[in-house]
Amino acid sequence: MSTKTNRDPKRRKPDANRPPEKAPASPRTAVSRLLHQDKTDPWAVRLLPRIVFGLAAAYTLFSIASQSGSSFVMVCALLLLGGAIWLLRRRTQLLLALASTILTAAFTGYFSAAGESARMTTSAAVTGTAAFGYWALTGMALLGAWMVKEHPGRRGVTVVLADVILVIGSVVGMFVPEAGVPIGFVGVLGVLAVRGASAKAMTARVRRLGQALRRSRPRDARKTADS
User: Which of 50, 62, 202, 212 is at a distance of 20 to 30 A from 23, taking alpha carbons?
Assistant: First the structure.
C-alpha cells in the first residue's frame, strides 16, 4: 500500500541563500550600536556626526537668537526659509520663482531708495510708493505665471525673465523716476503674454495662416496658367 503524504502548499522549505531575518532592534541595542561605532555598521557611523552637528547648530542658533529681538526675528526667518526650501525641494520651478521674487523685491527696493536719497528732492513717502509699485509687479509676475493652467514653458523661467525686466526698470527709475514703474509694468505684461498660453495660441494661428497661404499659392498659379 502506498501512503500519500499531505503536503501543505503554504509550507515551504527555508531557502539556504536567504539571509536570516533580524529581530526588531530594541532601544538598548540601538544605543549600544551608536556607542560602539562599528565600521561595518553604516547606520551608527552616519548617525553620530548628524547628532553632533545638529546639537551644535541648535546651540548656535539659540545663542544668536537670545542676543536681541532683531536677531531672534532673523533666526526665525531663516528657519522658516529653510523649512520652505526643504518642503519645495522637489518643485524646482516654484522654488526658483520664489527665490527670484525675493531677490527682485530686495533689489528694486534698494535701487528706488538709492535714487531718492541721491536726488534728495522728494520725501521718504515717495520712495515707499515706488518700492511698493515694484513689489506689486513682482507679485503680479509670480501669480501670472501660475494662473495659466496650460503653460507652454517653464513657469520659473517666466518669473525670472519678468523679474530681470523689473530690475532694469528700477535702475532706469533711479535716473528717470516717472519711467521706472511703467517700464516694469509693460515688461511684465509682455513676458507673461509671450510666455503664456495666449502666445502659444497666437503662434498656432500664425502657423495655420502661413500654411493656408502656402496652399493657396499653387492654386492661384494654376488658375493663371489655365487662363
Answer: 50
